[in-house]
Request: fold
Amino acid sequence: MPEVARHLVSSLSEADADLTPILRDVGRDMVLTAKLLRLANSPRFGLARSVASVNDAATVIGTEALRTLALSACIAGSFPKIPGFGREAFWRTSLATGGYARWLAKPAAVDAESAYLGGFMVNLGELVLALAVPDYVRAVEAVPHAPGARLSWEQERFGFSHADVTAELAARWGFPAALVDAFRYAADPFEPRRFSRMAAVIRMAMRMAEVGSHGDRDGAAIDALPSEIVDHLQLDRSWLAAHKPCWPELVAGAEAF
Reply:
């Protein structure tokens, strides 16, 4: 992870962190800035005008949202291309998962930017495993899974899931403990002593992105949400169906990765 990314991660644990000097460092990295501006100018933000600099983007979308985008770009750039691995499809799903998590954050009463980051990162364990144990990924992908079943299948078959690998990676990178725990309990938000709202949001976002990647027909993504989580959070499926974000907007900018 580049130095600027480590500073961005450290700022997540600081209340009212001053992001100005960190974003100034981001602006000095031309490659990172190019990726960042491509994401900021994508349809997801619906900007009335395009932004041409990091400072401009911070003014228009806010420093916290910009930090999240910068971290996303840094994280994506930390992984090399893997032969035979569908990199673009992976990052599209990651962007969609992050976008759905951000959208679900408000009704679930969790922080929106943390939710986006959690959704974007939760599948990083797949990349780690594809690099370290290619046969593992091939074995998992050879087995058909119903939406949302992969994590539990991995747990039963191997004793861990790719979300567990993400949790370990996030811990080593110094991400806040609350986010690490959300990855660890993504398979079952009811597992910890206290129900994890962030893990629940990430879990729902994963389901929606998985369905969306195959074409969300007739509201299938909302239908796929785990009933026990929807009921516990007292979410209204009709409202969710009426306000669900558009897949193409969520995945816009994936080519930057």
User: Anything to note?
Assistant: The radius of gyration is 17 Å.
